[in-house]
């Protein structure tokens, strides 16, 4: 039943989009820049350590909630701003997603035998109507609120009467995972209570605070009215995702889940790569950076307890403290003892001094010379700068450059435009169709260093959005052949908008775009110049398969006249290699590159409109 991961979360990678995005995403930087002003600054930890946060609020641990009126206003705002409203919404998908978002721990509604799931499923049509129509009251949500109050009271009783359990696993056991969803929720509550008793017996009063905070979050003493508002917030999250396959709504305490912080110019430097939620803390599973170690169980960060936080709140807390300007403390258990360790900022927070992430590049044997294989795994805002750094570092006697866009799910439109400036300076790029019918054209930003030699791109079925923009522009302008498989087909873009209730952020699809020659991309994908199977078997993922996917759009040809008339030939043909292409870390890449130099450079392959 669960639609999102409850146990494992990867800081950085899972801040995406993940996170919430289905498939892949393209985002407007102009909206990202203004979506959340940096108002949450000068915060203080419980230890009194001042620091500034990069516009992210420290989560309170309270469940997000919306009044009936506010929930409707956010739903109406989403429908008014989305590129095109779907004819119908999948009620079953809406109810399942509501059940999931309602339950950050897995024993309120999402676990097997939890009665609230049946109530939500039974009332799904009425719940949808209450969100969409201005009826007098959210009666169905209020009824479920009453049932939630009763149910959590029963869970609390199971928690409070649980006997002390075995000490093994009480501290580091991953209690909230897919296995737990198959347990009876009363058993989960009892296991949580047993672990609380063990921690008190082991650490005494030192553990009291973290346990008490966890209890208040796991089993809050809310009345029926507040529970109905928590349900309405879950409904809005489910509604927006059902309305828009790339859409999301998140409260301010969890807004980092709506963004992909990895796509910013200089992603925050985080303290670990992977962790698991335990009963009252967070187990660092891998990639720990000093002063943390793999195996540490974290109780608090900067005085803020981790017990009972949702995955999204934990992500936001980690991202917020990654930007702390002053030292802060982490309370943790190491070698059976509670310790408090100070964390110092790794680099000055002047982001201009922070290094770019950079691109991995391989130098391959190609005929009697060499080619560079540049791996572009996502499209960050800084991709143009990163490509410029690569071009500066490459030897001048290269036979050519191959851009590896396989598995690249996209990112920033500005990042794509700046990257293309190195190969198509000043070229008109993508016609973008807005909801009101207006068409905007984005142009390639001129690069500090341009490259006019032989060029090619590798793509696969997972190449999407802004990565398809890059490969598609090179194809439209006959600047480079594209090798691989038909791509994902995401020709739509998302925008970040503050919600009208002033409690959260919306991510919505606000436009569709085509390639520079007018070829439709949305729902169709790119057809490569040279087909090559990087993956085997049929793919179950593609833009056209997503529920309520947006229609394709064939736009105008915005290329310069010399390209539209076909008078311009490719800038530089690939030289022959005589079968000598070696040195790839991935042998399939070398096999694909061998398709170059055997034939004349393929002209633009007509796409399916």
The rough form would be described as globular
CA(first)-CA(last) distance: 37 Å
Q: What class would the helix/strand composition place it in?
A: alpha+beta
Give the number of helices.
17
**On the 0-100 scale, what is the average pLDDT?**
84
Strand content: 15-25%
Number of strands: 23
Features:
single chain; 609 residues; alpha+beta; 2-enoyl-CoA Hydratase, Chain A, domain 1; 7-stranded antiparallel beta sheet; 7-stranded mixed beta sheet; disordered N terminus
What's a concise summary of this model?
The chain has 609 residues and is of the alpha+beta class. It has helices at residues 17-20, 29-35, 68-81, 91-102, 115-122, 124-132, 139-160, 178-181, 185-203, 208-218, 224-243, 311-321, 383-393, 413-420, 466-476, 561-564, 587-593, and strands spanning 8-10, 25-27, 43-44, 50-51, 248-251, 274-277, 282-286, 297-301, 304-305, 328-334, 337-343, 360-366, 369-375, 400-404, 410-412, 428-434, 439-443, 455-459, 482-484, 492-498, 504-513, 530-531, 581-582. Strands 1, 6, 7, 8, 9, 10 and 11 form a 7-stranded antiparallel beta sheet that branches.
